[in-house]
């Protein structure tokens, strides 16, 4: 089913516009082995849960010791900034979709649980600094997704109507945050979460990639791989 072109689109970042699952897991295993003596997360359920959370919420679940939590946070960030240029890459169609949306006058925002420092690193690596109009990170909110605080903050900056704005993400928390903010929602299953997980939170549309999402909005994207646009 096709939908009208949005006035604005808010995107999640990790798993949605960039492929970062491998680096996130590497950093988690590296820092937890160093600080806690054993790699974590190991199970698939923990991987999906913790890789989608912001550090401010996830690291305190591993220790009550504030110094240990601080070491986890520092070590994770250091590992990420070291590995990002090797492992972070845009998802297929990320660049072309954002370029095409903006060429049609659609405002683009990011609502992510990621820290601003790591996000800015990703934007540089993926050459995507000039493709968004507003950014809300995990550092900018008190409560992370699925709470709609970040969605509401982005909407306030953009001045867009909720009825003509979409929230797009690869995780249930993205869909739930969009719903709570009164937006249309799109789940995308090429990231960290499965089709079944996304189906469980009933997004307005559920797609396999960004090209399919563009088609739903009546947009034709060039047949090109965004991975080739990395420096």
SSE map:
Layout: E1 8-11, E2 18-19, H1 21-36, H2 44-51, H3 55-58, H4 66-87, E3 89-90, H5 94-103, E4 107-111, H6 116-126, E5 134-136, H7 149-158, E6 165-169, H8 172-180, E7 184-188, H9 195-199, E8 205-207, H10 210-216
Parallel strand pairs: 1-4, 1-6, 4-5, 6-7, 7-8
Antiparallel strand pairs: 2-3
Helix pairs in contact: 1-4, 4-6
Question: Can you give keywords for this protein?
Answer:
231 residues; alpha/beta; Rossmann fold; six-stranded parallel β-sheet; 10 helices; globular
Question: Please, could you describe this protein's structure?
Answer:
The protein has 231 residues and is of the alpha/beta class. The strands form two sheets. The protein has a six-stranded parallel beta sheet with strand order 5-4-1-6-7-8, with helices on both faces. Strands 2-3 form a two-stranded antiparallel sheet. Helix 1 (21-36) runs antiparallel to helix 4. It has helices spanning 21-36, 44-51, 55-58, 66-87, 94-103, 116-126, 149-158, 172-180, 195-199, 210-216; strands at residues 8-11, 18-19, 89-90, 107-111, 134-136, 165-169, 184-188, 205-207. Strand 4, helix 6 and strand 5 form a beta-alpha-beta unit.
Task: Give a quick summary of the entry.
The protein contains ten helices and eight strands. With 231 residues, it is an alpha/beta fold.
Rounded average pLDDT: 93
Global geometry? globular
Radius of gyration: 17 Å
The CATH architecture of the largest domain can be named as 3-Layer(aba) Sandwich
Q: What's the CATH superfamily of the largest domain, by name?
A: HAD superfamily/HAD-like
């Amino acid at each position: 089913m096709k939908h009208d072109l949005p006035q604005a689109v808010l995107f999640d970042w990790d798993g949605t516009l960039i492929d970062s699952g491998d680096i996130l897991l590497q950093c988690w295993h590296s820092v937890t082995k160093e600080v806690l003596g054993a790699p974590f997360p190991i199970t698939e359920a923990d991987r999906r849960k913790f890789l989608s959370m912001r550090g401010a919420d996830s690291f305190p679940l591993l220790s009550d010791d504030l110094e240990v939590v601080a070491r986890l946070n520092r070590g994770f960030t250091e590992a990420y900034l070291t590995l990002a240029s090797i492992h972070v890459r845009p998802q297929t169609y990320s660049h072309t979709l954002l370029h095409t949306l903006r060429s049609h006058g659609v405002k683009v925002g990011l609502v992510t649980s990621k820290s601003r420092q790591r996000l800015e690193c990703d934007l540089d690596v993926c050459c995507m600094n000039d493709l968004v109009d507003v950014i809300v990170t995990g550092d900018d909110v008190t409560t992370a997704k699925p709470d709609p605080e970040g969605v509401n903050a982005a909407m306030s900056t953009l001045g867009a109507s909720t009825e003509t704005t979409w929230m797009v993400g690869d995780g249930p928390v993205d869909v739930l945050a969009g719903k709570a903010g009164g937006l249309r929602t799109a789940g995308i299953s090429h990231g960290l979460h499965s089709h079944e997980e996304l189906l469980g939170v009933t997004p307005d549309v559920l797609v396999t990639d960004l090209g399919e999402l563009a088609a739903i909005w009546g947009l034709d994207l060039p047949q090109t791989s965004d991975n080739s646009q990395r420096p």
